[in-house]
Design brief:
By secondary structure, the protein is α+β, with helices and mostly antiparallel strands. It contains 13 helices and ten strands. Helix 6 crosses helix 7, helix 6 packs across helix 12 and helix 7 runs parallel beside helix 13. The longest helix has 29 residues.
Length: 370
């Protein structure tokens, strides 16, 4: 939830408009806040510091249920090694330079009390003020091109992360999104609108699909076979992905959700978001349904082209990590649950429950049809 609630089923929480001055304020003196927004889970403030330097401060909201913790020293060192490899791969020039470029890992730092107040927070230093979550559906051609290129960068970065086995001599941290989903499914987190959504979803899905959702979520939390766990971002999304207005490396906010597990979880997390946006637009739901037309298949294909090896590109579906479609479906459920719990009730959630039922009934296959 690094930008507004991803693929939100209702119009976004009011925030500063995404105008050119918010991307790179002209003539700003010193440090100035250019965007502020959030939910009861997190509040985000974006500040401009001059010379195309921005900071994103994420402060826990009243519904945030855990401390914001940085990765362990060993995991942090692995992340910095991956980022150095990404920087090296994209440091060339010429027509083919972009082919090896990935999104740089913007590693979060504990915010000073003067920045975040008594609730604490994590700050990220990045080259832009607006994420792909805002740019992709904006209807602006330049913003769309930036977004598609950033998604290809994201695909390459996720593949780099997934090439690192979880061999750090320490337990794998929990996957927080799956943890929230399992607590919601079990009824262990009754929270007003979240509980109301649970009753609705249970009714809309029926016993068979509710059991399928439960089984998939439980299985996704279990340690993977097939060679063991790999390094995961933990919650990649368009809201964590910040293109550079200068057209160089995008930045991927990284740290708070880092874990280990099956690579399908990371890749499916982004594909599930894009599938939700595409479906919402087609059904006239929320912000996606009210905005200009967006070529979401092109965005998803860019992500997959970045993620897949050249030798895998001809057989896209077969080359994806097993379980990607299931992970993408779980992402739909997590976002629906988070929206009800951290933003509030909206009647569109009824339609999102139907979308989840349809996707579950098809074994997640629609999330891979691009």
């Amino acid at each position: 939830m690094a930008d507004r609630p991803q693929a939100a089923p209702v119009p976004p929480v009011p925030e500063a408009p995404a105008v050119p001055a918010a991307v790179r304020p002209a003539g700003a003196a010193g440090s100035v806040t250019v965007r502020e927004y959030g939910t009861r889970y997190l509040r985000i403030s974006v500040r401009y510091h001059g010379d195309a330097r921005f900071s994103w401060l994420r402060v826990p909201g009243p519904a945030h249920d855990r401390p914001q913790t940085a990765p362990s020293p060993a995991v942090g060192a692995a992340l910095r090694q991956v980022d150095a490899a990404i920087a090296d791969a994209g440091s060339g020039s010429g027509p083919g330079a972009d082919a090896g470029r990935g999104a740089r890992l913007a590693l979060g730092e504990r915010a000073a009390a003067s920045e975040s107040g008594e609730r604490g927070g994590v700050v990220y230093r990045v080259p832009g003020a607006v994420s792909v979550a805002r740019l992709l559906p904006s209807g602006d051609d330049t913003a769309f091109r930036l977004s598609v290129r950033a998604l290809a960068d994201l695909g390459r970065t996720l593949r780099q992360l997934h090439d690192v086995p979880w061999e750090f001599g320490e337990p794998v941290p929990p996957h927080h999104g799956l943890g929230r989903l399992l607590a919601w499914i079990s009824g262990a987190a009754p929270d007003g609108d979240g509980a109301r959504l649970r009753a609705l979803a249970h009714d809309r899905l029926g016993a068979r699909l509710w059991t399928r959702l439960t089984d998939w979520a439980v299985a996704a939390q279990e340690p993977p076979g097939r060679g063991g766990a790999v390094l995961l971002h933990g919650a990649p999304s368009t809201g964590w992905l910040v293109p550079s207005p200068a057209g160089d490396h995008s930045a991927l906010l990284t740290g708070e959700e880092v874990t280990g597990g099956d690579p399908a979880l990371d890749l499916g997390w982004v594909l599930g978001e894009l599938h939700e946006l595409r479906s919402a637009a087609a059904r006239g739901l929320g912000a996606a349904g009210q905005g200009p037309p967006v070529d979401y298949p092109a965005a998803a294909r860019a992500l997959l082209a970045g993620y897949l090896r050249k030798e895998d590109a001809a057989a896209t579906a077969q080359a994806l990590p097993p379980g990607t479609a299931r992970a993408a479906t779980l992402r739909l459920a997590v976002h629906m649950r988070d929206f009800a719990s951290f933003v509030g009730w909206h009647e569109d959630l009824r339609h999102y429950a139907d979308l989840l039922a349809e996707t579950l009934d098809a074994d997640g296959a629609p999330t891979l049809r691009w």
